[in-house]
Amino acid sequence: MRSHSITMLGTGLIGDFYTRTLHAQRSRDRVAVVYSRQASRAEAFATRWGVPHAVTDMAAAITHGASDVVVVALPNHLHEEAIALAAQAGKAVLCTKPLGRTAEEAARMLACVERAGVFAGYLEDLCYTPKTLKAVASVQQGAVGTVTWVRAREAHPGPHAAWFWDERLTGGGAIIDLGCHCIEIIRNFVGKDNRPLEVMCWADTLVHPVDAEDNAVALVKFASGAIGQFEVSWTFRGGMDLRDEVAGTHGTIWLNHFLRTGFEMFTSAPRDGYVAEKAETADGWLFPVGDEAAELGYVDMFTDMFDALDTGRAPRETFYDGLVVNAVMDAAYTSARSRRWEAVNLPDWRGGDVPRLHVEPERLDGQLVIKRERLPDGRARLILRDPITGEFGERVQ
Q: Which DSSP letter does residue 2 get?
């Protein structure tokens, strides 16, 4: 089995999560080179994770002979430069979310790797959480029928690094930071062939003294008629709230990924330790996470990426997926300003042509059956409609 040596671009929290996962999961893959603009950060990261080469020049890190894969764990405004250098070096490149600050930027990155013919994967970890993978498989097997509505929510007290708060560097606020997760989760459930058509979005800065939005809610309309709903917040108190809901013609799925995982603990002992990402307190009622890297999807994400690289297939999440997400976010920002439904601009649509969903109604004695329900006495009540007159009625059996 092939092993890979990795250049890790970035030494922040995400770089730590990525490296811990890479070194632990497949074991044979190792970070060989780490890059940071600050020598002290690069050297501390190298010491922490046993990385042999710490450098402060991005181009030198990417072209370093000790690595064959580049992982981009940098602030958003540096993604395009890093990806261009990796493509030029002929190396596989994996990029954290969001791919770009805008769809235009993401399209340039996609074109860059495709021209170079290098492997490119989009590191959208929350599409790889164990619960999400199981739920998506259940949907694909028909467990909920045809999907009609998906809600994805991510909310926490705000990002952990200063650059996240500067929309000049990031491209936006809570939508660009958290909405990218939610949109791609929604796409996994409604189906990636299902074209996103329009977005209606509210966004505002309610709490923090910043220019970017710290709260937003949006609706995404898909070609099938399904609706995606995402809610994002940088002002939620109490930790990190990651929840998804899926509704279909024959079933429903509820997912809670982080705050209610079955591990709840109360403590009044004096302590100041780490509990979980975005946790705000170390005493009182706490909701620790057993294996944080696994629960957040990093383990299955990197397994998929490197297995795809080794076998020559596309990963579950590609740069094209990142482009679609950026296009939806662009429409969300436009809608927040216009206060109208806004079209999703995707001139290079590579998905399918999904028809509008249609459910053939049950019929009884020429009547359309709208609903069946069981009464307390065991009998069944049917809500009916006459297809000719349009009148409604009911029957008890």
A: -
